[in-house]
Amino acid sequence: SPAMRELEALLQSYAQTDLPVLITGETGVGKEVSARYLHALRSSSEDPFIAVNCAAIPAELLESEIFGHEKGAFSGAVKRHLGYAERAKSGTLFLDEIGDMPPALQAKVLRLIEERSFMRIGGEESISFTGRIVTATHRDLSGGAGGPEFRQDLYYRIAVLPADIPPLRERQEDIPWLMNRLLENAASRHNKAVRGISSKAEEAALAHGWPGNVRELRN
């Protein structure tokens, strides 16, 4: 669809820099797929793509998971742990659902972006961060509904290069194409000789609102 071709061109232009990118869109619309595409455009195969779902990791563990910790930093820290920021190296650190990140940790991510460095929990050594930060959210972080808890100074830093992905219901021409691609992949994966999708199935798909977007269509 024109909207997706526009998004593809936008991400290609963003690949020319290492500035932070914020990808917005409803749940299931393909934000991580877009982040991986951006990573592939500008990174060598050796550069890692490290994805962190900020909504899926308990708040008390998230800081340690992102920044790592030193041995003995807290009860249970029996050895040094390298966090996602350190493991990203010169690749991409993708913070998905950053709108769910606790406010105290938002301040540390802001520092990571501004100073291009961080410290492990319990550490005294500043570690250089050479990767690119890409974030994603389904929330409005700009101070509108759903975003009052999000630091506005951090929002302005992560949203230097914004990319919004339209919901599937707004790009109907993509639905038949996606259906056929997903069917081909499923048939190949399960070694089934499925010939195609009936016109009635396609009509039903076009009439559906797809609140879960591409993820719902795939399932």
Structure in a nutshell:
The protein is 41% helix and 13% strand. It is α/β, with parallel strands linked by helices and 219 residues long.
Largest sheet: 5 strands, parallel
The fraction of residues assigned to DSSP E strands is 5-15%
Q: Which strand order do you get reading across the main beta sheet?
A: 2-3-6-1-7
Number of discrete helical segments: 9
Helix content class: 40-55%
Name the average pLDDT.
Answer: 92
Number of strands: 7
Low-confidence stretches: none
Rg over CA atoms, rounded to whole Å, is 20 Å
Q: Give the terminus-to-terminus CA distance.
A: 22 Å
Q: Can you walk through the features of this model?
A:
There is one protein chain. With 219 residues, the chain is α/β, with parallel strands linked by helices. The protein is built from nine helices and seven strands. The chain has a five-stranded parallel sheet. It has a two-stranded antiparallel ribbon with strand order 4-5. A hairpin with an 8-residue loop joins strand 4 and strand 5. The protein is elongated. It starts with a helix and ends with a helix.
Features:
5-stranded parallel β-sheet, 7 strands, 13% strand, elongated, alpha/beta, 219 residues, single chain
Topology at a glance:
Layout: H1 2-14, E1 21-24, H2 31-42, E2 49-53, H3 59-67, H4 84-87, E3 92-96, H5 103-115, E4 117-118, E5 127-128, E6 132-137, H6 152-158, E7 161-164, H7 174-189, H8 199-207, H9 213-218
Parallel strand pairs: 1-6, 1-7, 2-3, 3-6
Antiparallel strand pairs: 4-5
Helix pairs in contact: 1-2, 5-6
